[in-house]
Design a protein that fits this description.
Elements: H1 2-28, H2 46-64, H3 66-77, H4 96-106, H5 109-122, H6 128-208
Length: about 210
């Protein structure tokens, strides 16, 4: 019997540890790594140690998360709110004034909900013929969607090819033309220098004569 109780307690603590890690991961993006784990060679008081570790981990989580701290404070004041009570059973920790304030604070929601539910009844329902005609158009709509997807792929391919043609034109016409003009200007400059040199030589020859 004692062995069965230990197994049940160990499984319960495993479940609580998993729940605590999941909550901590959802709130902080991390999980408790130093919660003691059960081992077969631990003494009988390992359950107590693991419970103490769970309490410490929960305390650390409440210090890091304001939401957890507020929930723990609320549980300490109104523990019945965290119990699954039947609808006909009233929580014993709440006074009549507290229950009345809760009901009155939610009272405006009832007529609003009723009004919204009633307005749904006023929404006109499309005739059966219109619905049938729309359903009959579904195959054509599907074909148009397929055609649109094909055209989108063709447009993407044309855009790619246009970009390649534009790049080739820029590389050949603009860059190539610039290089060609630069080469021609260099040749003209060399010819001009040679012409000036020849002219200067003729002038010196004439001066000598």
């Amino acid at each position: 019997m004692e062995n069965t109780f230990d197994k049940t307690a160990s499984r319960t603590i495993d479940f609580l540890e998993a729940r605590l890690r999941r909550i901590e991961f959802l709130l902080t993006g991390d999980y408790t790594r130093d919660v003691p784990q059960a081992r077969s060679d631990q003494p009988e008081d390992s359950v107590t140690e693991r419970l103490a570790g769970l309490e410490d981990a929960l305390s650390r989580l409440s210090s890091k998360s304001k939401i957890v701290k507020e929930i723990l404070d609320l549980h300490a004041i109104y523990p019945d709110l965290f119990l699954s009570l039947p609808l006909e059973q009233i929580p014993t920790s709440l006074s009549s004034s507290n229950l009345l304030s809760i009901v009155l604070s939610s009272a405006p929601l009832y007529p609003t909900t009723v009004s919204r539910l009633t307005s749904i009844l006023d929404v006109p329902v499309a005739p059966a013929e219109s619905s049938a005609s729309l359903m009959a158009l579904q195959p054509r709509i599907s074909k148009v969607e397929v055609l649109q997807e094909i055209q989108s792929r063709e447009l993407a391919e044309l855009s790619r090819r246009s970009a390649e043609v534009l790049e080739r034109w820029y590389r050949i016409s603009v860059l190539g033309g610039g290089e060609c003009w630069a080469e021609w200007e260099g040749r003209v400059a060399r010819v001009e220098r040679e012409a000036r040199r020849q002219e200067a030589m003729r002038e010196r020859s004439n001066n000598v004569l």
